[in-house]
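thread: overnight batch results

M.L. [08:02]
morning all. the overnight job finished for the chain we discussed friday. pasting input first so we're all looking at the same thing
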Amino acid sequence: MLRRLIQLYLGLSLYGISTAMFVHANLGADPWNVFHLGAAKLFEKDIGTVMIVTGALVLLLWIPLRQRPGLGTISNVIVIGLAADAAMAVVPTPDALWLKALLLIAAVVLNALATGMYIGAGFGAGPRDGLMTGIHARTGWSVRVIRTTIEVTVLTIGFLLGGSLGIGTLVYALAIGPLIQICLPWFRVAPVTKPIVKKEPALSVDP
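M.L. [08:03]
and the structure it wrote out:
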């Protein structure tokens, strides 16, 4: 349990750091962060604050879907936003294009590692992933269609709000799936099972 908790909160913290790296690379972010950046500009708030509010609002959509949040779900809403705001103050903003490209690549890789860590800890899906699985469970629609629809919707809204859309968005879209597939087995915590003890048959004694 201790290992799982450490893995959960380390993964969520690293996810927040990767968000700050996307922002400072300034080459485009993943769809949800394009939305977060656009909303942050509109409401003149820190991106971490927007991430927390967005996560809480998405979590409300779980109610009609009859989804139940876990510790990882609630922690996802709070920790990622706080970590992103903290990292924004310390992650450097490079000037050279090649440094921006390196920061972008590092952000994608770190994001995949972080995702593998917090999902592998097994404390429940994040609000956005839970929305996808909840809609699938209630409607039977394809997960691929649901995920694509959600991502395209938030990306479009975020772009219209002024979010950062660029080559980084495409790199993330193409690379994040395969990278998570590689990383997740490294951090998936196997359930603890008790060894099966076979009972020896009782010896019968003839009278």
